[in-house]
Amino acid sequence: MEVIRTPAAMHSLRDELRGQTVTVGLVPTMGYLHEGHNSLLKAARAENDAVVMSLFVNPTQFKAGEDLSTYPRDEERDLAIAESSGVDFIYAPLPDDVYPSGFATKVEVEGLTEVLCGSETSRGPGHFAGVTTVVTKLLNAVDPDVAYFGQKDAQQATVIRRMAEDLEFRTRIVILPTVRERDGLAMSSRNAYLSPEARERATAIWASLLETESVFSESGLDAALEAGRRHLQSAGITPEYFEARYPGTLDPAEGTGTDPILVAVAAKVDGTRLIDNILIEPSSTSRRNP
Ligand code: AMP
Question: Sign of the C-alpha dihedral, residues 133, 135, 140, 142?
Fold first, then answer.
């Protein structure tokens, strides 16, 4: 496994790979790897000749007061995990090389980025502008055939798909299911912040989504959302949002009809902000756990 530290070195590597006509899979990450990341790496390994994992805590997607400075980092451990998952190349540039002085460009997706995590009462639309700008830069630097993202960040997945289609990116975007702890908590680098007590309480997030799904099939969407929110509240967790939306447009879901419904939640547990979601299929009673 080789570690590439600059955009220029990444471009030379890509030219070399192009000469060998290999297919390239990219897994963008902010590091502190867990089994969720690993599932993306394994898929990339199975489907491509060469696997690149980017490792970059992108400063522009954090707003003032968020956890940029304390975001968990352990590059040595990440490199060992990546190597054992069959990654060929790590692309780990420095912020100053990604955003050199004079950098002035923003890639922004409208509408989709103004709700849920993008609303002013949450991380704000600037969060997604940071994400789409850095993903554009990563896709340009690595020029992968396929890029892998997780359904855990459902809104991010919708925004990136929209951007890739709108800007005619030729990279295929693949979204893979959320990997969970045994008790259902979605894996996240931020789970490392949780005290044992908060970690225990955080299981209410996934449980509240399951509760929503089960009430939905019997009593409809409004009652289902209310039941889910109540479940969270009973664990002492007040959600930043707990909403039902259509996954492709992020328009509010009405709960009639047969289109799948995304129920997404963000909540702080003892100061740690966690997100999760479930896709409910109105046409069947069986659960799909994306
Ligand atoms: P991050 O390092 O948190 O920016 O995540 C990098 C990629 O891994 C993103 O595409 C995430 O959606 C994905 N990811 C994070 N957590 C999980 C999880 N529990 N299951 C599946 N994918 C995940």
Answer: positive
Of the chain, the percentage scoring pLDDT greater than 90 comes to 95
189-208 as b/e, with b when 16 or more CB fall inside 10 Å? bbbebbeeebbebbebbbbb
Which atom of ligand 1 is the closest one to the Cα of 149? 10
How far apart CA 289 and CA 280 sit, in angstroms, is 8
219 vs 283 pLDDT, higher one: 219
Ligand 1 pocket, Cβ-based, cut-off 6 angstroms: 29-30, 36-37, 39-40, 149-150, 152-153, 178-179, 186-189
CATH 3.30.1300.10 in the chain, residue ranges? 191-277
Contact present, 119 and 128 (Cβ < 8 Å): no
pTM: 0.96
56 Cβ contact list (under 8 Å, min separation 6): 28, 29, 30, 31, 91, 92, 93, 95, 98, 134, 138
- On average, the pLDDT of the chain sits at 96
Distance (angstroms) between ligand 1 centre and the Cα of 24 equals 19
pLDDT at 21: 83
Q: Mention the CATH class of domain 191-277.
A: alpha beta
Classify 2-176 by CATH class: alpha beta
Q: Which of 75, 128, 152, 182 has most ligand 1 atoms within 8 Å of CB, for mutation?
A: 152
Contact assessment for residue 260 and residue 282, using Cβ atoms and an 8 Å cutoff: yes
